């Protein structure tokens, strides 16, 4: 099956995986140091604020991650114009929505880290240039830039540890982890890709297009983000900040290997989006589903074997209760990746309205299941409810679209999976 993938797509996927490995490496070493130092309670505050800023980041993107990717797949110059025309509106939305959060957490003992989370997510919301290079199958550029950024930020992190500076100094590498890659990509893009000129009229048209077309993707993206974040919000309300801190470690580690899945998904999407034959698009998407399932089981197996020792070594004994939720959330990560494929497949059929309506149902389901399961079983209940929401979102709720095209896709996926098993 892998042989059927275009060699260029595979090459781009491996560069994307290299980039994410580097990013995850930095994330583990920085966040584990913070988590160990401040303990579960303050780290719970940090995790809660970060979850909110990540939601704000998604809203500020206005679905531009999907729209820009799709536009570049079909017309590079048009995609570049969209990137250049919509930067200010993304920043403005992020700042306006973040202000109340910064005010709310002002009295928190971990406010310095909350401020770092705010700035880090802000630069991530502006860094749509990474999407451009992924869509052009030039993830090598992203990888090289991220290596540079990671070396820079990790160098500062190790200096802080070596000279025994206060942990508050970790504010700097947390921010630089996203700022340095953003700055490098921005400069590189302006020098080599930014020749397209835009009039005020065109900027207005592109902004209007983003606001109108992106709303469906915003709701969908928020829905996906809420699957785990709803658990964090309700855990904070029902169980307290300590449990939030532990659960956030489980959620972070459970999704840390998903970069492998999304590397192949992202690299394969241009081929699917540009396919005019719907049957062939279905076959390509089914093949991608099988590949993602196979890779996911490998990741889940490693998590079961290694996660407990990993948590103890990097985060300390206070976080060992994160193991069982982590294993459950690994299955949720697989379903989430398959759900992302299904959402893009629905977008292939221009089912933006359906995605918007489905989001409302998923959000309500997430609130109900999380509340009931967390109230009854605490942190384990949060993990199980996340898994169930992902399952319903991937299957039953998607099957109502366009006379069951997603159901047909999943049937073909099962058939291809069985054929592959007996090859």
Automatic annotation (TrEMBL):
Highest taxon in the source lineage: Bacteria
Keyword flag Transmembrane: yes
Localisation per UniProt entry: Membrane
Keyword Transmembrane found: yes
Main location, first listed in the record: membrane
Membrane topology: Multi-pass membrane protein
Keyword set, alphabetical order: Membrane, Transmembrane, Transmembrane helix
Listed Pfam families: Polysacc_synt (PF01943)
Annotated Gene Ontology cellular component terms: membrane
Segments passing through the bilayer: 21-40, 46-68, 89-106, 112-132, 144-163, 169-189, 210-237, 243-265, 286-307, 322-347, 359-377, 383-402
InterPro entries according to UniProt: Polysacc_synth (IPR002797), PolySynth_Transporter (IPR052556)
PANTHER family: LOCUS PUTATIVE PROTEIN 1-RELATED
Protein name: Polysaccharide biosynthesis protein
Species assigned in the record: Klebsiella pneumoniae
Lineage, top ranks: Bacteria, Pseudomonadati, Pseudomonadota, Gammaproteobacteria, Enterobacterales
């Amino acid at each position: 099956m892998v042989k059927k993938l275009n060699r260029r797509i595979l090459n781009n996927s491996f560069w994307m995986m290299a980039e994410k490995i580097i990013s995850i490496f930095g994330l583990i070493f920085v966040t584990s140091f913070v988590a160990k130092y401040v303990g579960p309670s303050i780290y719970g505050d940090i995790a809660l604020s970060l979850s909110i800023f990540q939601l704000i980041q998604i809203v500020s993107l206005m679905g531009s991650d999907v729209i820009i990717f799709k536009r570049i797949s079909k017309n590079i110059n048009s995609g570049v114009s969209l990137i250049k025309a919509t930067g200010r509106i993304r920043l403005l939305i992020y700042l306006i929505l973040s202000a109340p959060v910064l005010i709310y957490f002002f009295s928190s003992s971990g406010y310095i880290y909350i401020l770092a989370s705010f700035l880090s997510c802000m630069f991530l919301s502006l860094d749509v240039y990474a999407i451009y290079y992924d869509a052009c199958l030039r993830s090598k550029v992203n990888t090289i830039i991220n290596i540079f950024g990671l070396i820079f930020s990790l160098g500062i992190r190790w200096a802080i540890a070596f000279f025994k500076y206060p942990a508050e100094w970790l504010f700097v590498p947390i921010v630089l982890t996203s700022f340095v890659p953003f700055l490098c990509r921005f400069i590189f893009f302006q020098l080599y890709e930014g020749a397209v000129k835009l009039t005020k009229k065109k900027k207005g048209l592109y902004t209007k297009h983003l606001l109108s077309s992106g709303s469906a993707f915003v709701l969908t993206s928020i829905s996906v983000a809420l699957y785990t974040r709803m658990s964090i919000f309700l855990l904070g309300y029902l169980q307290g900040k300590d449990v939030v801190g532990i659960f956030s470690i489980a959620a972070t580690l459970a999704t840390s290997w998903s970069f492998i899945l999304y590397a192949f998904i992202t690299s394969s999407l241009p081929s699917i989006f540009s396919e005019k034959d719907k049957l062939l698009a279905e076959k390509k998407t089914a093949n991608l589903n099988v590949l993602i399932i196979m890779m996911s089981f490998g990741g889940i197996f490693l998590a079961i074997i290694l996660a407990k020792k990993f948590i103890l070594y990097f985060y300390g004994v206070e976080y060992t209760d994160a193991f069982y939720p982590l294993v459950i959330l690994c299955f949720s990560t697989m379903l989430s990746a398959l759900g992302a494929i299904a959402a893009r497949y629905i977008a292939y059929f221009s089912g933006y309205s359906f995605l918007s309506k489905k989001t409302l149902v998923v959000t309500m389901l997430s609130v109900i299941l999380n509340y009931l399961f967390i109230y009854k079983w605490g942190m384990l209940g949060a993990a199980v409810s996340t898994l169930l929401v992902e399952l319903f979102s991937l299957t039953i709720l998607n099957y109502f679209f366009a006379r069951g095209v997603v159901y047909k896709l999943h049937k073909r996926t099962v058939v291809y999976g069985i054929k592959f098993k007996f090859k």
